[in-house]
Amino acid sequence: MSDPILKVTDLSRNFDGIKAVSDLSFVVQPGEIKAVIGPNGAGKSTLFNMIAGVTPPSSGEIHFQGQRIDALPTAKRAEMGIARTFQNLQIFPEMTVLENVMAGRHMSGDIGMMRAILRLPATVAEERRISAEAMELLGRFGLKGLATTRAGDLSFGQSKILELARALACDPTLLLLDEPAAGLPHAEADEMSRVIRELNAGGMTVVLVEHNMRMVMSISHDILVLNNGQWIAEGDAKHVSTHPDVLAAYLGEEEDA
Ligand code: ADP
Ligand code: MG
Q: Which pLDDT score, from 0 to 100, does residue 90 have?
């Protein structure tokens, strides 16, 4: 087996006495689609925030491509090849679709990000190249015709695809997707599955947090199940979907609801 692309070791994060993530260890192999599932409050978003560098861990280590990253700034991790989308859509509604993707290209640096928001061109040549690359990405996702549309005017499904395109603009090797199918109707969720599978076929490693079990079960090579911040099971769709602790965790959620 090859060296893992991502290695999480004894990772914990507390919030005012709540153990959001607790002594969590797992690896992600290069080229795989790994799903992270679990009931609401299981710690999935907190885990993503620690990998992307938004939330510092309370303890533990994160290694990416063999290098320890848990103390590095977000921008540095983005530069190294880690990109993410958010559980709550985070596009810039007042900017055009094209500008949103171009902003992603600049996101590897805080200064670049500010420049993108303020629309200050780097150099004309650089801006032109970035624009051409962003257009190409839009083309891949069928959004080219909407390049000059205000992002806030897109449908919800189109916005989710736009956010994904923006994450891809910095050419990541590891893509973290936080609920990419949330709120999408069946057909659009299936389209999202197709896009993720295609990216993965192109060599991209994907870690996917998702409640849509149809998506999780159909595209994941490996599934990690969390409950109350803790590792409870890991394996393929068949293993986790029949695991008694997994069933108990989800049953608990239904009883709470
Ligand atoms: P999930 O994404 O699996 O639904 P989260 O990672 O969002 O779970 O949350 C895990 C736990 O940590 C929850 O109990 C949540 O209330 C708590 N939590 C998450 N973020 C914060 C925060 N910024 N401040 C305080 N508590 C938080
Ligand atoms: Mg979450």
A: 84
What are 76-110's pLDDT values in tens digits? 999 899 999 887 878 899 999 999 998 887 654 44
Identify the residue whose C-alpha is closest to ligand 1 atom 21: 15
CB atoms within 10 A of CB 77: 23
Is the minimum distance from the CB of 13 to ligand 1 under 6 angstroms? no
Other beta carbons within 10 angstroms of residue 142's beta carbon come to 12
Rg (CA), the chain: 18
Report residue 124 as tokens: 């004309």
Residue among 82, 33, 46 nearest 194 (CA): 33
- Ligand 2 (ion): residues with CB under 5 Å are 44-45, 87
Distance 86 CA to ligand 2 centre (A): 9
What predicted TM-score, i.e. pTM, was given to this entire model? 0.89
